[in-house]
Design goal:
single chain; alpha+beta; Aminopeptidase; OB fold (Dihydrolipoamide Acetyltransferase, E2P); 2 domains; 12-stranded mixed β-sheet; 4-stranded antiparallel β-sheet; 6 helices
Length: 316
């Protein structure tokens, strides 16, 4: 069965690619890139998107590797990839908010076809890609001045069957634990609105882009395709702890964050993890581990404000 995206037909057993026109800015057309693999045999559709936060590049690199090497000739179903959702932010190398309208692309789903450009992009991706999928993966890394270990999140729901499907999807990545996160204008809106299971992955930093994190993400997608029956082979679905204790340690003073650990570090209760200093060299705050655990998120930028997250410590 042929697959049609934005007027482009992708026949069975083939790969297609293109740009979906969304809207028009003052100086250029706004479009979203896509690549689709349409297997010759019937089966489910997996949609994987990246670049919702435009400089979270590690999973984008992972998706590029899948695009380069995946052969659709034995697939039973479809894989649709949107490597970069926020293309203007990607071009401008802008973190956090979209430079068009200062909206967070991850807070506006399912979008609005008559709204500002960020919401129009969300509406186009939702309508053309997400709503047509049987399962969705939203791929992230840490953002500017941040670093993160390899984690997978499932979205909160009271539907136990749907939650079970998401936990099985999450277990397709090599992780030590899975966390539950809220549906709050993010891509997780597909869970309550459409009944589609969705997971969010997070690994790596914008720079340097680590080879091992890009491959971790790509291998997880391949394993998920086997789990869903899209690709032949036996999947590995890990059963790992769900929602272990995790604590946010934050700056009580503004200044310079002089960290003493790296992301992924295993630390002991009471261990000094870093300190916040004034710009004239006064030690304003020492940060100690409240329990044995793993640093799963780390602020790498030197400058911090009062209230900024310094790290997350997870009991794993």
């Amino acid at each position: 069965m042929s697959l049609s995206i934005g007027g482009v037909d992708v026949p069975p057993g083939a790969r297609g690619r293109g740009y979906l026109r969304v809207s028009e800015a003052s100086t250029h057309e706004v479009s979203v890139p896509w690549v689709a693999f349409n297997g010759p045999f019937p089966g489910p559709t997996l949609c994987v998107i990246g670049g919702v936060h435009s400089i979270e590049c590690t999973p984008i690199e992972g998706l590029m590797r899948i695009i380069e090497e995946l052969d659709p000739s034995t697939m039973m179903g479809r894989l649709i990839i949107v490597p970069v959702v926020n293309t203007t932010g990607f071009n401008a190398r802008t973190p956090y908010e979209n430079p068009w309208d200062h909206l967070n692309q991850n807070k506006v789903w399912p979008g609005d076809p008559e709204g500002p450009l960020t919401k129009r992009v969300a509406h186009a991706v939702w309508t053309e890609f997400l709503s047509k999928a049987d399962a969705v993966v939203d791929a992230h890394s840490a953002d500017l001045g941040e670093d993160a270990t390899r984690g997978v999140f499932v979205f909160k729901t009271d539907d136990e069957a749907l939650r079970g499907r998401m936990l099985n999807m999450a277990g397709c990545w090599d992780v030590d634990y899975v966390e539950t996160t809220a549906v709050a204008g993010n891509t997780g809106e597909v869970v309550p609105r459409l009944g589609i299971p969705c997971v969010m992955t997070e690994a790596g930093a914008p720079y340097p882009l680590r080879e091992k994190d890009a491959w971790w993400f790509a291998k997880g997608v391949y394993n998920l395709m086997r789990h869903l029956g899209i690709s032949p082979g036996d999947p590995i679905v890990r059963k790992v702890p769900v929602d272990p204790e995790s604590r946010r340690l934050y700056a009580t003073r503004g200044g310079a964050w002089r960290k003493l650990v790296d992301v992924g570090a295993k630390v002991k209760e009471g261990q000094l993890l870093g300190s916040v200093y004034s710009l004239v060299g006064e030690n304003l705050q020492e940060v100690h581990a409240p329990y044995d655990g793993t640093v799963t998120f780390l602020r790498t930028h030197f400058s911090v404000n009062e209230g900024d997250t310094l790290l997350w410590l997870t009991r794993v």
